[in-house]
Amino acid sequence: MSACRICAQALRTRRLDFGPQPVTKKLLRSADAIAPSHPLALAQCESCGTVQLADPFPAALLVPSEPATTREPEGHLDALVERLCALLPKDARIVGVSSKDDTTLARFEHRGYRNTYRLDMQADLGIAEPNAYVESIQAALTPEAGSKLAARLGAADCVIVRHILEHAAMPAQFVAGVSVLLKPRGLAAFEAPDCKASLDHLDYTMVWEEHASYFTGATYREFFQRAALDEIALDSFPHPYESLLVFVGRRAASGVDRATSATGASEQAAFDTFLDAFPSYRTVVRDALRAARQRGEKVYMYGAGHLAVSFINYLDLGPLVDSIVDDAPEKQNTFVPGCGIAVVPSQAIADAGAFTCILGISPDREHVLADKLTERFGEAVRLHSIFNRSPRAFSATAIHR
Ligand SMILES: [Zn+2]
Description:
single chain; 401 residues; alpha/beta; Rossmann fold; 2 domains; 5-stranded parallel sheet; 15 strands; globular; binds zinc ion
């Protein structure tokens, strides 16, 4: 597979290749259970510059084994809804594509917009698996499915799509599937993570098997220039860890044939640096953990979510981590796919003596956990973060340009 899924041009031959990787959210019931895996390699288009998985994981492999819960940042939603309300009459039909859009629809309702609707996974998209989520929605909402939906439900004045596009194996097809839900000149808002800061700061936690595409502001704009939507706004809402890109566009009057800006060249340098720095970052992390082992310390990873599991597997840290600490009831007596490390409750570190702990929870909660562990263990705990922009980063300066 060497064609860009965004623009169909060639992918560059340079890859960040992690080899076969499991689905990180699917914890195992025994240490030696076989986790299904798929090749994971990060590539870049030589034309549009979009960073992407060379070969996305099949949707069927990604269907969660537990009901999915996500917490996408919401601080910017009032501003987004205000922008859209200025363009929409009070009786506008406003449609959300997934449960990620419920809080946005609620904001419209709060402002007096009563004609809202959220697509139903089973009835509207024909998705039967009870735990199916965005991995299945992106595949189901094809232009054909969208046309049938529009005929049955009526066309919409506005469609909201938060955090699905980056999961789409065929992004242009997915946007076309959403666009046909719209009335002529109807509005669509697509939100996705802005990966520029992660690329620039060499933060490898950006990579995740569920994200097929890794947009920056430049590549996001170029992507939508190819879609049948006229840009009204493209905002990057700042967020300390990962800003949010929101494209707002109007369904184009007729077939589009637009010139696109060629962003590839300027995006290539950032990706090259990201690739080039990976081996030295991995060495820095491994050396820190080996040193802990030589001091006789146990090494814990705190958090059994996808960020922590990916960090262990991508950096091949399995032999250097003793246990994974997580108090979530559903994760007790499980083992992490890829490395087979046991998940233990936080009680297990009570009498550990001196130890090293890698903080692998979400970056906005990291400092709270760090304070808690420092208060409880004082000098006995040495803390590291999986995030390269954390004050507890393994290598805040060594690998920065
Ligand atoms: Zn491309």
